[in-house]
Amino acid sequence: MKIKITTEERKSDFAKEVEERSGIDVKKCYQCGKCTAGCPVAYEMDYMPNQIIRFVQLGLRQEALTSRTIWLCASCITCTTRCPKEVKIAELMDVLREMALEEGIANPMEKDITTFHEAFLNSVKKHGRISECGMLMEFKRKRPKAALKSALQDVADGSQLMMKGKLSLAPHDIKGKDNIKRIFEKLG
Amino acid sequence: MSEETKKTKIGYYPGCAITKCSTSEEYGTSVLGVSRVIGPELEEIDDWNCCGASSGHATNHKLSTALSVRNISLAEKDGYDEVLAPCPMCSQRLIVSQDDVENDEKLRKEVEDAIEMPISRNVKVSNYLEIVKNYSMDEIAEKQKRKPEGLKVASYYGCLLVRPPKILKFDDPENPKTMDDIVKAIGAEAVDWEFKTNCCGGGFTLSRPNVVIKLTHDILEGAIDAGANAIAVACPMCHANLDMRQQAIEKEYGRRFNIPIVYISELIGLALGLKPKDLGMDKHFIDTGSVIDTFSDIEK
Ligand code: SF4
Ligand code: SF4
Fold first, then answer.
1. What are B109-167's pLDDT values in tens digits?
2. Domain A9-104 belongs to what architecture?
3. What is the pLDDT of residues B184-230, one digit of tens each?
4. Is some CB atom of chain A closer than 8 A to the CB atom of B272?
5. ipTM score for this prediction
6. What Å distances lie between residue B232 and B12, B144, B156, B249, CA to CA?
7. Residue B183 has pLDDT above 70, yes or no
C-alpha cells in the first residue's frame, strides 16, 4: 500500500489531538503487527489495525477517520491485551469512531453498523432501557436491506424470538427516564 | 452479629438482555433460581438503566461512562457494597467506567453533573463466575442432588469477562479456568480447547451477520473437534450468537453441529436438582435435552 503524505499532514497535530482525547500515546507503537495478527475481524477490514495506528502517527486523519476498519472493529480488546508496548488500540478505535461521527465523515459503506448504534441508543434515550422490539423496528425501517439479509431474517423480524416469548412488545420505561434524557442532552 | 447470621446481600443488576421477556431471559431466570437455593441473596437495584453496551462506548465515551456509573451510584444509594452484573457486557462497562472516572477528575465531574448524583468509589462490581467462585462452591458441593454422566463441556468465556485484563483483573486472559472449575465441581468433564476467549462477533448480530457466522462457526467447530458435547457460556450475546444461528452456520459451511449452548447457571441448577423448565432451558433454539438427560440422581 502506498499513500502519499502531504506536508500539511506531516505537520498536522492529529496524533496529539487523539492523544489528548484518549490518553493514548500512539508514538509507543513500533509496528510489530501483533495487534493485527490476533484481530478476529482483520479479514474484513480495509486497513489492518496496525495500519490505523500508523495513520494516526503520520497525521493521516482522512485515512483513519474514513476507514471501514474503525466500524468493523468488534471491540474484543484482544489487540490491547496482547500489545507488547501497552498501546490501547481497542480504546483508540472508540476515539476514532467518535471523531468520525462528530465530523460527519463516517464511512457510508458501514451505515448498517452506525445505524444499529443509533437505533440502540435511541431506545435507551427514550426508555432508559433497551426495548428490543423498538430497536429492531427502527433498524428495519432505516436499513431494510440489511434487515432482510437471509441469514439474519429470523432475528430481524423477531418472529422466532416472539414464539419463545423472548421479545416483549411493550417497552419498559424506568422511573428516572427524565434523568436519562438529561444525560443524553448534556453528553449526547 | 455472629458469622452464622451475617448475610451477604448483593445488588443485582440484570441489564436489558436477561430480564423477563428479553432475548436471553433464561440466563436471568437460572441465575436467580440458583441463588435462591445456594445464595448469595440477590436484590435488584431499584430503577437501573441500560449501560449503553457496545453502541455507547463505540460512539460516545462520556455518555457511555455516565450511563454505566449511574447504576453504581444507585447501588450505593440502596446500600450495596457489591453488585452482580451477570451480563459481561454490563460488568465490563461498569468496571471500565469506574476505572475511567477514577483516573480522570474532569470526566468524573462532568459525569456527576450529568447523572445528578455523586459517583460512588466503594461498590465492587462482579461477574457471575466470580460470584459463584467466591460464595457458592461449598454450597454446590453440599446441596448437589444430581450428577452428569458423560457430559463434556467446552467452557467459552468470550471477550468481555477477561478483557481488558489490567482493569477487570479476572482470571488469565488467554486461558481462564474459573468456569472450567465450576464445570468440574458439578462432575462434568471440562474439555481443553483453544477458543475459550475468541470473539463471537458480539454486537454485530444485526448489523454484520456474516462476521458473526464466521466467528461462531470457528468456535463451534473448535468445541466439537475437541470432543465437547455442550458449550457452557456466561454471556447473553455469546449465547445468542452461538445458539440462534447454528442452522445458518450449518447451511453456510455444510457441517452439522447441533451442539447445545448452556449457561453455566443452568448447569449448576440441574446439579442442584432444579427443573429444566424453571431454569428456562426450554427457551433455547438448539434443544438442550441431550444435556439434561446426562443428569441423574446421586445415590446417597
Ligand atoms: S501490537 Fe502494539 S506495538 Fe505492535 S503494531 Fe500493534 S499497536 Fe503497535
Ligand atoms: S478490538 Fe477491534 S481491532 Fe482490536 S483485535 Fe478486537 S476487533 Fe481487532
1. 999 999 999 998 889 999 999 999 999 999 999 999 999 999 999 999 999 999 999 99
2. Orthogonal Bundle (1.10)
3. 999 999 999 999 999 999 889 888 989 999 999 999 999 999 999 99
4. no
5. 0.93
6. 22, 19, 6, 19
7. yes
Residue B131 is assigned to a structural domain of this protein = no
Specify the pLDDT at position A133: 83
For residue B133, being part of any structural domain is answered with no
C-alpha A151: how far from chain center: 22
* Residue B70, domain member (yes or no): yes
What's the domain range around B56? 3-126
Closest to A121 measured CA to CA, from B50, B204, B114, B73: B50
Best of A75, A174, A185 to substitute, by most chain B Cβ atoms within 10 angstroms, is A75
Same domain, B106 and B184: no
CA distance A135 to A119: 5
Residues B144 and B290 in one domain: yes
Average confidence (pLDDT) over B254-261: 96
**What is the DSSP annotation of B214-230?**
HHHHHHHHHHHHTT-SE
| Same domain (yes/no): B174, B283 | yes
Backbone angles phi, psi at B39, to 5 degrees: 70, -175
Judge if B122 and B143 occupy the same domain: no
Q: Which of B21-35, B62-76, B126-140 has the lowest mean pLDDT?
A: B21-35
Same domain membership, residue B280 and residue B191 = yes
pLDDT at B12: 97
* Domain termination residue (choose one: B79, B103, B126): B126
CB contact under 8 A, B57 and A94: yes
Task: List the domain boundaries for chain A.
Answer: 9-104, 109-187
Using the 8-state DSSP alphabet, how is residue B119 labeled? P
Residue B119 sits in the same domain as residue B248? no
Is A89 close to ligand 2, i.e. is its CB under 6 Å away?
Answer: yes
Region of A107 on the Ramachandran plot (φ > 0 left; ψ -120 to 50 alpha; else beta) = beta
Any domain includes B108: yes
Tell me, yes or no, whether B293 and B146 share the same domain.
yes
**Phi-psi domain of B191 (left: phi exceeds 0; alpha: psi -120 through 50; beta: other):** beta
Which residue is associated with the grid cell 451477570? B86
Which of B126, B149, B179 lies at the terminal end of a domain, its last residue?
A: B126
For residue range A126-165, list pLDDT tens digits in order. 999 998 888 888 988 999 888 877 445 455 556 677 667 6
From chain B, pick out residues whose CB is under 8 angstroms from the CB of A180.
49, 67
**Which chain A residues contact residue B67 at CB under 8 A?**
124, 180, 183
pLDDT at B61 (0 to 100): 97
| pTM of the predicted model as reported, rounded to 2 decimal places | 0.94
> Closest approach of chain B CAs to the CA of A123, in angstroms?
10
